[in-house]
Known about the structure:
4-stranded mixed β-sheet; 298 residues; globular
Amino acid sequence: xxxxxxVQNADALFEDLGRRLYLEAQIDIPPxxxxxxxxxxxxxxxxxxxxxLTTMLRAIEVSDRKQTLVCxxxxxxxxxxxxxxxxxxxxxxxxxxxxxxxERATRETPLRSSIVSPIGRKNRQTxxxxxxxxxxxxxxxxxxxxxxxxxxKGSGSESMSFLKMLTPAxxxxxxxxxxxxxxxxxxxxxxxxTIVGVGIGGSxxxxxxxxxxxxxxxxxxxxxxxxxxxxxxELRDAMNxxxxxxxxxxxxxxxxxxxxxxxxxxxxxxPVAVNMQCWRGERRxxxxxxxxxxEIGY
Length: 298
Ligand code: SF4
């Protein structure tokens, strides 16, 4: 970047980040997810469930060693971008470059392109198409860099997405009932143990976005509001008492964690959304700083 904070060589920089983040998210599982799986093996009382969790950890080891994907599903590429203070970037060019990076990763690796048109089911073999990659862009005065998180969202977990436009009359009990019913109804389909994201409040679109964004939070990191943090623990323990277990085959570990995000809402509404992330919990992050540094992490 130059002294005005403008990103230099932005096209090449963001294209390479798009390529790296999409590929590496599918190979390198975040440390908090690994730790949670190890803890689950130690805690699990059912031998069959322990075996499945151990196999998951083995898949991660093989992926580390051979630099292969942990799962064959390359997912829907979703970027979460936060632009901080005093960084000048051509936003449209940045999104184009990130998209080209995803297409390059798909072509050069090569990766299975999981993206098709909804009518006609046309596959360009690029992991992209109209509206995909999905980009969420926000601005924050709390950071002085550009934060880019890639989440390749597998179909098994993404298909377990639920929204209900509850009302204040349904109360907290109605909220908890809906969330737990979605977990029980999902069974083994989202490839448990899952990271369950819950959105409460906002409009219908914001509520679902909050639920999905909640799955990005590292496992074990609690919401800063103690009441919401307590709700997360209560829901996690309730889901783990269902007996659904790893891959839905029974056991004590149905979820690795539950994360709740909230927004204020209309006086007559109380929307609730649930979005699940499968056991691989994939995400990869890049921080682009004003001095030109790029940090890759989770
Ligand atoms: S939902 Fe299941 S099949 Fe899809 S990416 Fe996750 S682990 Fe793989």
